[in-house]
Each structure stands twice: as structure tokens, then as C-alpha cells.
């Protein structure tokens, strides 16, 4: 049971890693387009939050605190990128 | 101080086995901080550009030098700076700010070739490259060379003349520096194959043009370089969060403490994505 849990977590992390790597590759396709870069960041963040919540839901340990945590971390990531892209003109 | 940093960065009994930096109020504070700071930066840059602004050094001379260096490296003849093309580039840049667009063609259908005609440059071959948001001449030329269609213009044997305009203004609410590069040739090249693409157009009549230096540059050294400041703060913050998340993960795993929190590995992967994005993405745009 424990081994299955570890394997499940690993598969999930690899899946998230692939999504994020695809996000970076997609962002690199628009090296000079802020709007598209922001769009890629928003989409990748939604995938990160969505996957995280689905994973916790499947593990039967999804709580309001965890939802808030993923939302805050995702929100922080997006805000930092927004600051990075628009903070200096 | 040491105790405070320990409380902020590492899990222990007093912070409920979760670094203070990862507590929800702290995360919410950082979101608010970056949101407000970005707003303050934009306003300060607009009102006090000598205090806070992007350090910029873009000049016609350097753009010409770098463009011709690229051509020489590719065994092509160098281009001559042409007053009329520089004026056409200036008119195009002003038109973009006046009509608030970022494109080769204006919303009312005005094409780049209209500006060539406005200055009586009767081209056989003509082309246009655009850039915005860059801070140095080298970055502009590097970005054009990295893009296939712009590179074709830069290295086209059909052109003889070149003109530049480097102008500042507000485009869609954003203060930006526009760089307009116009290529042309008023003489037919023997056996030249006529081409047409986004950046090129063809025939008209022959005409002589003058060629001399028409200086156009933007050099600015504000007290605080917002470009560098934003980069250091954003990258530094993500770096600190990555460190805290990894440290938290290792310490909790070693102590075998059970907590109801999200998976740190997810957050590490996500922040790594943000970090890689910021380190590899360039801020300028070409068209």
C-alpha cells in the first residue's frame, strides 16, 4: 500500500513536471510577446493548481486549507511574473 | 535576528512546523506587496523617470554599426544611412503612437510603404523591421537576427540604404521605446528575383537619395534602474521561496512529522517554472 502511494506520488509529480516543461517550451515560442507570455503563465498556473487539488482529492486529504495553499502559491507565482513583466517599462 | 530568520525559513515547534514564510498571511502579504509595488513602479516611472526608470542606451549609430557588422560577417555589402529613410522611420513611429497600434499596417490600412512615399523615397526594394521594449542597441539587433523574417531583411542583398528612428511614447497605456528600421534600394539589381513578404515590397521608379548621418538616440541613466531592480527582486524572491520549500521538505521528512499541507514538491516544480521563465524570457518585442 505504502509502495503504491509513493509510486502514485512520483507519477503525479512527473506529470506535473511535464506540464510545466511544456509551459516553458510554449513560453519560449513567444520570446517577445508579453501578452502571450502572461497567458502561458496563467494557463500553466491553472494546471498546477488543478492537478494539485485533483491529486489531493484522489488521496482523500483535500481540505479548505490545502485549496487556499495552492491558490496562494499559484497567485504569488502569477503576481511575481506580472511584476517582472510590467514593473519596468 | 537569528531566531527571527530561523522562524521565517525553517519548520519548528514555535511556527507549527511550517516556516513562517509559507503561512497563508505571509503568502497573501507577498501577493499584495508585488501587486502594489508593480502599480507604484509604473506610476513612479511615469512621473519621475530620472528617479526610477529603465536604463536605456539605443542609438542610430550603434544600430547601424551592429547591422553592418552582421552583414559583413555574412559577406554582404554594408548599408548606408539614408536621411529620407530615417525620416520615414520617424513618421512611422509617430504614426504608431498617434494611432496607438503595434503592427506593420495601421488600423486604417496605412502600410509601411506609405511612409517611403511620404519622404519621396521611390524604392525598388523596401523593408521594415520593428522593435519595442529593448534597452540596448545590441539587444535589438540580436532579437532581429534571432527572428527568421527580420534576419532576412537584415541580410538581404537587395538593399542599399537604411534608416532608423528611436522614439519614446505611450502605446496602449505602456511607456515604451519604439525602434523602427527601414531598408530600401532605389536601384534595380541585375537579375534580382522579385520577392514579396510581410517585410518587403517591390517596384516603383528610380530616384537618387542622399546619405548622411541623422542622429536619433535615447540614452537614459535613472537613479534606480527599474529593469535590473525588478529582475533581482523577482528572481531573488522566487529563489528564497524555493530554498524554504526544499528546506521544509527535507526537515519534515527527516523528523517524520505529519502535517495537513499541500505537497511541497508541487510548489517546488511550479516555482522552478517561474524562475526558468524569468531567466530565459526576453522583455523586448519585435515585429
Structure description:
The complex is a heterodimer of chains A (89) and B (287). With 89 residues, chain A is mostly helical. Chain A has a domain at 34-89. In chain A, 84% of the residues lie in helices and 0% in strands. Chain A is built from three helices and no strands. Chain A has helices spanning 2-28, 34-58, 64-86. Chain B is α+β, with helices and mostly antiparallel strands and 287 residues long. Chain B contains nine helices and ten strands. In chain B, the strands form three sheets. In chain B, strands 3, 4, 5, 6, 7 and 10 form a six-stranded mixed β-sheet that branches. A two-stranded parallel ribbon of chain B has the order 1-9. In chain B, strands 2-8 form a two-stranded antiparallel sheet. In chain B, helix 4 packs across helix 5. The two termini of chain B are 51 Å apart. The interface between A and B is large, with 46 and 52 residues.
How is this structure best summarized?
Chain A has 89 residues and is mainly alpha-helical. Helices cover 84% and strands 0% of the residues of chain A.
Keywords:
heterodimer; A: 89 residues; mainly alpha; 3 helices; 84% helix; B: 287 residues; alpha+beta; six-stranded mixed sheet; two-stranded parallel ribbon; 9 helices; 10 strands; 47% helix; 17% strand; elongated
List the helices and strands and how they pair.
The complex is a heterodimer of chains A (about 90) and B (about 290).
Chain A: H1 2-28, H2 34-58, H3 64-86
Chain B: H1 2-9, H2 24-47, E1 52-53, E2 56-59, H3 60-73, E3 80-81, H4 83-99, H5 112-118, E4 125-132, H6 137-146, H7 148-154, E5 161-171, E6 174-185, E7 200-201, E8 217-220, E9 224-225, H8 226-255, H9 264-280, E10 285-286
Parallel strand pairs in B: 1-9, 3-5
Antiparallel strand pairs in B: 2-8, 4-6, 4-7, 4-10, 5-6
Amino acid at each position: 500500500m505504502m509502495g503504491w502511494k509513493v509510486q502514485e506520488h512520483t507519477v503525479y509529480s512527473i506529470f506535473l513536471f511535464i506540464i510545466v516543461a511544456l509551459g516553458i517550451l510554449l513560453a519560449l515560442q513567444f520570446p517577445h510577446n508579453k501578452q502571450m507570455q502572461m497567458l502561458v503563465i496563467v494557463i500553466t498556473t491553472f494546471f498546477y493548481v488543478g492537478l494539485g487539488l485533483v491529486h489531493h482529492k484522489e488521496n482523500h486529504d483535500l481540505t479548505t486549507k490545502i485549496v487556499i495553499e495552492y491558490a496562494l502559491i499559484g497567485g504569488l507565482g502569477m503576481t511575481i511574473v506580472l511584476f517582472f513583466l510590467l514593473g519596468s517599462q | 535576528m537569528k531566531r527571527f530568520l530561523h522562524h521565517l525559513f525553517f519548520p519548528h515547534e514555535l511556527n507549527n512546523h511550517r516556516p513562517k514564510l509559507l503561512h497563508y498571511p505571509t503568502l497573501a502579504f507577498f501577493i499584495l506587496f508585488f501587486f502594489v509595488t508593480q502599480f507604484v513602479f509604473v506610476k513612479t516611472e511615469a512621473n519621475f523617470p530620472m528617479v526610477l526608470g529603465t536604463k536605456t542606451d539605443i542609438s542610430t549609430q550603434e544600430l547601424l554599426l551592429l547591422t553592418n557588422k552582421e552583414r559583413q560577417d555574412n559577406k554582404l555589402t554594408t548599408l548606408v544611412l539614408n536621411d529620407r529613410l530615417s525620416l520615414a522611420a520617424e513618421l512611422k513611429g509617430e504614426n504608431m503612437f498617434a494611432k496607438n497600434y503595434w503592427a506593420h499596417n495601421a488600423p486604417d490600412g496605412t502600410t509601411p510603404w506609405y511612409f517611403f512615399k511620404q519622404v519621396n523615397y521611390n524604392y525598388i526594394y523596401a523593408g521594415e523591421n520593428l522593435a519595442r521594449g529593448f534597452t540596448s542597441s545590441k539587444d535589438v539587433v540580436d532579437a532581429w537576427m534571432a527572428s527568421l523574417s527580420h534576419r532576412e531583411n537584415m541580410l538581404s542583398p537587395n538593399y542599399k540604404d537604411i534608416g532608423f528612428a528611436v522614439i519614446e511614447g505611450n502605446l496602449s497605456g505602456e511607456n515604451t521605446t519604439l525602434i523602427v528600421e527601414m531598408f530600401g534600394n532605389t536601384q534595380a539589381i541585375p537579375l534580382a528575383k522579385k520577392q514579396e513578404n510581410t517585410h518587403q515590397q517591390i517596384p516603383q521608379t528610380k530616384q537618387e537619395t542622399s546619405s548622411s548621418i541623422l542622429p536619433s538616440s535615447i540614452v537614459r541613466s535613472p537613479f534606480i534602474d527599474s529593469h535590473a531592480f525588478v529582475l533581482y527582486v523577482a528572481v531573488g524572491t522566487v529563489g528564497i521561496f524555493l530554498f524554504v520549500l526544499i528546506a521544509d521538505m527535507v526537515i519534515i521528512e527527516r523528523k517524520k512529522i505529519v502535517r495537513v499541507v499541500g505537497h511541497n514538491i508541487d510548489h517546488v516544480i511550479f516555482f522552478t517554472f517561474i524562475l526558468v521563465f524569468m531567466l530565459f524570457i526576453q522583455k523586448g518585442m519585435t515585429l
